[in-house]
Amino acid sequence: DAKTTQPNSMESNEEEPVHLPCNHSTISGTDYIHWYRQLPSQGPEYVIHGLTSNVNNRMASLAIAEDRKSSTLILHRATLRDAAVYYCILRDVGDSWGKLQFGAGTQVVVTP
Amino acid sequence: DSGVTQTPKHLITATGQRVTLRCSPRSGDLSVYWYQQSLDQGLQFLIQYYNGEERAKGNILERFSAQQFPDLHSELNLSSLELGDSALYFCASSVATRRGTDTQYFGPGTRLTVL
Q: CA-CA 20 to 30 A from A79: which of A54, A86, B55, B62?
């Protein structure tokens, strides 16, 4: 499976944007980029996913580099509720309904 | 609320015992996944069922077993428990469209403490 690399932690002030980077230099052409997050004492929850084009939803935006070797999850205005561990995960379209392979993720700290 | 329910929320037991964790998937979801989260190993995939059949296995110990019933709920059985089995156990479910991509919805987890 292609691997992802994320920073261990990031800090942000409330109502400021947060840019979470993810490197995936060995990504294959059929890998989707998924993001999940895990709030304290909860199960992970889906945030967003994309293949080649940038994506937006009500939670976040996903910016994908042209060569697809990296991507950035953007939280436009961080709130205290966004404090969580964010996981960047690659999933092959051929196994789109298989397991999620979690790494260590990025711990996001939001300061009031 | 993801729509996935897990019981019990907490379980405290002794080494050598056996426990059963239960998961009810979201309505309409055919696939169930079990994950283990411990402090030193992070979130690890254990096993996946699809419509009653085992589909994939991860790092699941031989002392652990699971099944998915006709009503699609699933149970994870952990036996001969050891201190190292103490962890959070999450169940997730998905529609399993097998097209493009698929979102997993996670339950709140069962915290197992083995003393």
A: A54
